[in-house]
Design brief:
The complex is a heterodimer of chains A (143) and B (434).
Chain A (H helix, E strand, L loop, with lengths): L2 E9 L4 H11 L4 E8 L3 E8 L2 H10 L4 E12 L4 H11 L4 E9 L4 E8 L2 H10 L3 E3 L8
Antiparallel strand pairs in A: 1-3, 1-4, 2-3, 4-6, 4-7, 5-6
Chain B lengths: L8 H4 L3 H22 L1 H10 L20 H6 L15 E4 L9 E4 L1 H17 L7 E4 L8 H12 L2 E4 L5 H11 L3 E4 L1 H13 L10 E5 L5 H11 L2 E7 L6 E6 L6 E3 L4 E6 L12 E8 L10 E10 L11 E2 L4 E2 L4 E3 L2 E3 L1 H10 L6 E8 L2 E9 L9 H19 L4 E5 L6 E2 L2 E2 L2 E3 L4
Parallel strand pairs in B: 3-4, 3-5, 5-6, 6-7, 17-22, 18-19
Antiparallel strand pairs in B: 1-2, 7-8, 8-9, 9-13, 10-11, 11-12, 12-13, 12-14, 15-16, 17-18, 20-21
Helix pairs in contact in B: 2-3, 5-6, 8-9, 10-11
Classes of the chains: A alpha+beta (143), B alpha/beta (434).
Chain lengths: 143, 434
């Protein structure tokens, strides 16, 4: 089970990130999860939204450079060791990780972790083998 | 000096009087040919009040009007064609990155002469029919590949028409087939050298010489390439409008390029007044083609800033020499003492896969010039991984550094963010107050 993640090139200048979120808001796109990786000059905004196609369309129309990639989202218990079990499963399967970001759902007492790995298929089967609960985009909600 | 060091010794080592007589005769023909067959050229001559009868020798050359790239663009595509298309056999074209492209036409005779010019360059670089000439200039509309390919055939060398790209395959062929003369852009030569060392096959390379052109390169870059590959690196110059590579070429002295002046008469002019300058003075290089049939350009302004000299050359050639162009007459920048041309930056950007929309920002902070190149990000260059984007940024930076001999700060910008005024991008913002 994989999820589409949108990455957007964002200049490292005041108001640039706000600009992206405004485009999404105007298009009625709901953000499910996001993270930003930045350098001194630019950032890469990664996000999961409720309508990937619509978001891409709106961002392209506003001249943003975007990219869609497949990521995995795993539900883990919000307790010490929850993330470790997922990462151990991946490293045992020899799947290398590019990056991850996590957030907690207060409502359910669960944490979610979004994983970008080199071998998505391999990661999915390794995690399923360890009974890790993989979720779809619709299950993600940061609220 | 043995005969085999020249392709055409009678011409390449001709005494001045002989060369002048040949140029006089050919010039008279060329002016008549262009005037009779090229309508916009005839109009230009009339506007300047000059007729073919006024041109009796090279001394009269200054009477003719200049031609510029704009003239060719305005007359695109057939305006400056002097013969029916049925007599032409080839089209080549400029890249057209700075505006509308220019297409050049060739008869078989034009191609033969062009090939001969390149053959002279290959012989001057020490080539013979014993050599394996590895051509990794692009083949196609770009004149680099076809020009050196034809020259190599004329010399009788074994020709490897590699074209550009696929570095690993280039090196594989080089080792398997024993390439001895490499023809490409200097920056690609440097890139190949780096990869040859990375692959650990330096001892399997049999290269002895390189013929590098189509972009500006420094003397330092020449020495680096020579050291790295164990070769002699020779410069070659040309432009599509005049024919292609081989308008001029370097000999073993490596002190400037001999102009094939039996075909292309060079002049140096003051770019502002158009006045002809004496030998040894710096100005804009202008060429008059005196043998071309299909596309006979006379007094064509190259925009290259250059110096011509007739000092005796130890190689034995008497052909007039031109220095490596020191830049363009229009857009040169001096940053930390180094000459920088926006066109060089553009060349690198296009080669690295970035759009040609960029901005150079120069400033002076604490008596030191700052130099920034802003580039627009594209979908092709983007990645969701920081390290991938940063690696591409580093690649661009090192390509710029090797081209310019100076390190800019590279800033990646979002698409459509670089300022444009009146629809035309502002390439250079110089904030220095000197």
């Amino acid at each position: 089970m994989t999820i589409d993640q949108i990455s957007v090139f964002v200049e490292n200048e005041a108001g640039k990130l706000a600009g992206v979120t405004k485009v999404l808001a105007d298009a009625g796109i709901d953000l499910r999860a996001m993270s930003i990786a930045d350098t001194r000059d630019f950032g890469i905004l990664r996000m999961i939204v409720d309508d990937t196609g619509g978001a891409i369309e709106a961002l392209k129309a506003a001249d943003y450079v975007t990219l869609t990639s497949k990521v995995i989202a795993a539900k883990i218990e919000d307790r010490p060791g929850g993330l470790a079990s997922v990462l151990t499963a991946l490293s045992e399967a020899g799947v290398s990780m590019e990056y991850l970001y996590a957030f907690v759902s207060r409502r359910e007492g669960n944490a979610y972790v979004v994983l970008r790995v080199e071998d998505t298929e391999g990661a999915v089967s390794a995690l399923r083998g360890k009974n890790v609960d993989l979720v779809g985009a619709e299950d993600l909600s940061a609220s | 000096m043995s005969e085999k060091n020249y392709f055409h010794p009678d011409i390449e080592c001709a005494d001045y009087g002989t060369m002048r007589a040949l140029q006089d005769e050919r010039l008279v023909w060329a002016v008549r040919h262009a005037y009779d067959n090229v309508e916009p050229y005839r109009a230009k001559c009339r506007e300047k009040g000059v007729e073919p009868g006024d041109i009796r020798s090279v001394d009269d050359l200054h009477k003719l009007p200049f031609l510029s790239k704009d003239d060719l663009r305005d007359a695109y595509p057939y305006g400056y064609l002097a013969l029916p298309l049925s007599e032409c056999v080839r089209i080549q074209s400029t890249s057209g990155t700075t505006g509308k492209r220019v297409v050049a036409f060739y008869t078989q005779h034009d191609l033969d002469l062009w090939d001969e010019c390149c053959a002279r360059a290959i012989i001057a670089a020490g080539g013979s029919n014993e050599d394996v000439v590895h051509v990794c200039y692009g083949y196609g509309l770009f004149t680099g590949g076809p020009g050196l390919n034809g020259g190599s055939h004329m010399v009788g060398s074994l020709t490897l028409p590699m074209s550009s790209g696929n570095t690993e395959r280039q090196i594989q062929f080089m080792t398997d087939l024993g390439s001895t003369i490499l023809c490409c852009t200097p920056s690609y030569a440097a890139f190949l050298a780096e990869n040859i060392h990375k692959m650990g096959v330096r001892d399997q390379i049999r290269l002895k010489a390189g013929i590098f052109g189509a972009e500006a390169w420094s003397e330092e870059m020449r020495r680096d390439i020579e050291r790295s590959l164990g070769i002699r690196a020779y410069d070659i110059y040309g432009l599509t409008e005049i024919s292609g590579p081989g308008v001029s070429f370097e000999c073993e002295e490596q002190t400037g390029m001999h102009v094939n002046e039996d075909h292309f008469i060079p002049e140096i002019i003051d770019p502002d007044t158009g006045e002809v300058l004496p030998l040894g003075e710096k100005g804009e290089l202008v060429f008059t083609c005196v043998t071309k049939q299909a596309f006979p350009l006379l007094r064509y302004r190259t925009r290259d800033i250059c110096i011509l000299t007739r000092d005796e050359c130890a190689c034995g050639r008497t052909l007039v020499k031109m220095r490596k162009p020191m830049g363009r007459s229009d857009d040169m920048l001096i940053i930390r003492g180094v000459n920088v041309f926006p066109s060089q930056i553009e060349t690198v950007l296009l080669r690295e896969g970035y759009p040609a929309n960029y901005q150079i920002i120069v400033d002076r902070v604490n008596h030191t010039d700052t130099f920034e190149v802003q580039v627009e990000m594209t979908s092709e260059m983007f990645s969701d991984e920081l390290k991938v984007v940063e690696a591409r940024e580093d690649e661009l930076l090192s390509a710029l550094r090797s081209m310019l001999g100076i390190s800019p700060k590279v800033t990646l910008r979002g698409p459509e963010t670089i300022a444009r005024s009146e629809g035309k991008a502002v390439r250079v913002v110089d904030k220095r107050k000197i």
